[in-house]
Amino acid sequence: MPLIQWTEAMSVGVAELDQQHQGLVALLNQFHEQMMAGRGRAALAPVLDELLRYTEVHFAAEERLFLELGYPHALSHHVQHVALTAKVHALRDEAAAGRRFVSLETLNFLRDWLTEHIMNADMAYKPFFAARQRE
Questions:
Q1: Can you list the alpha helix ranges (DSSP code H) found in the chain?
Q2: Angstrom distance (rounded) from CA 6 to CA 8
Q3: How confident is the model at residue 29 (pLDDT cuts 50, 70, 90)?
Q4: Is residue 26 predicted with pLDDT exceeding 90?
Q5: Which of 2, 12, 24, 55 has the fewest CB atoms below 10 angstroms from its CB?
Q6: How far apart are CA 90 and CA 104, in angstroms?
Q7: What average pLDDT does range 41-60 have in this prediction?
Q8: 113 and 84 in contact (C-beta within 8 Å)?
């Protein structure tokens, strides 16, 4: 069973961003599978590396749309992106130094942050983007 199940309720109405969100969900689900199969320790650093790469692309795409469309809450959303990126960098550094091991705490943090961010912060821009796409 996946850690996170993508549903239409998670859609922000922008195909590019929805596809990226689905990719992030898939990445966390792959990590969860590795963990459940006892390969989590070996998977942690590569998953965090991939998460950093993927979020960099995704956050840049979101923020590009914010600028193009004049989203009024772009700065506060950017601050959330910076905070997650810093947290994942810290987790990655701890894993590389042997101070961070696979744990449900790490997995739950990533799951909770992603679902919370999509369902709250990202959903806040959904009506704004929808209105701009109709114009």
A1: 15-36, 40-69, 74-96, 104-116, 123-134
A2: 7
A3: very high
A4: yes
A5: 2
A6: 17
A7: 86
A8: yes
CATH 3.20.20.70 for domain 14-134, yes or no, is: no
Cα 117 to Cα 21, 66, 71, 72: the distances in Å are 10, 16, 17, 17
Tokens standing for residue 110: 């990533």
**Short-list 94, 133, 98, 114, CA closest to 51:** 114
* Domain map (residue ranges) of the chain: 14-134
Name the residue type at position 61: A
Q: Where do we find the tokens 């929805």?
A: 18
- DSSP states along 27-55: HHHHHHHHHHTT-HHHHHHHHHHHHHHHH
41, pLDDT greater than 80:
no
d(Cα 101, Cα 2) in Å, to the nearest integer? 21
Taken in order 117, 114, 104, 57, the sign of the CA dihedral is negative
- Return d(Cα 135, Cα 126) in angstroms, integer: 15
How far apart, in whole angstroms, are the C-alpha atoms of residue 104 and residue 110? 10
pTM for the full predicted model: 0.87
